[in-house]
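Large ribosomal subunit protein uL4
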Amino acid sequence: MANVSVYNMEGAEVGKMELSDAVFGVEIKENLVHQAVVLQLANNRQGTQKAKTRSEVRGGGRKPWRQKGTGHARQGSTRAPQWTGGGVVFAPTPRDYSFKMNRKEKQAALKSVLTSKVQENKFLVLDELKFDAPKTKEMKKVIDALKVEKALVIVGKDSDNAVLSARNLEGVATASAETINVYDLLKYNTVIATKSSVAAIEEVYA
């Protein structure tokens, strides 16, 4: 099992914690990680792009000039793609970009990223993260004490004040054990988790 340091909110090391190999010590499968990122980005696409083809553009029903004898190239319509105001060649139409991954593949991708974060020493554990009231300044102190930038903070239950405190911090986002995803784990340089959220992650994904 991997051992990681546990810090308090002042950034001081207060102990050690063992992480489950079933979640934080798996074989890293880069192909599944890549597929999971593409999946999330594709599923977020609206797919509403639309342009008109020559058959959909208004007008152009009359042949602009006779076939022969004018010195011009032959033309059948003023709405052909080479004309100003003409239709678009191979115009995009609304479509659904989403696709699916198997549940086990998604979990394997997530575990691969968590394992890589632990191996790169970019997975920090806090003994707790509690605030009496939502205070952005207090969350900023915690981030600065841990000497990290662009962090994803994984919080446990009853952490509304922590979520609100991090909401206005640039480069800081929050998530729960149930809502973490591969894209966000890769997007942020460091992952910060409380001891309770680590236990929740191991319970959900082990």
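thats it. The longest helix spans residues 103-119. Strands lie at 2-7, 13-19, 123-126, 151-155, 172-176, 190-194. bye
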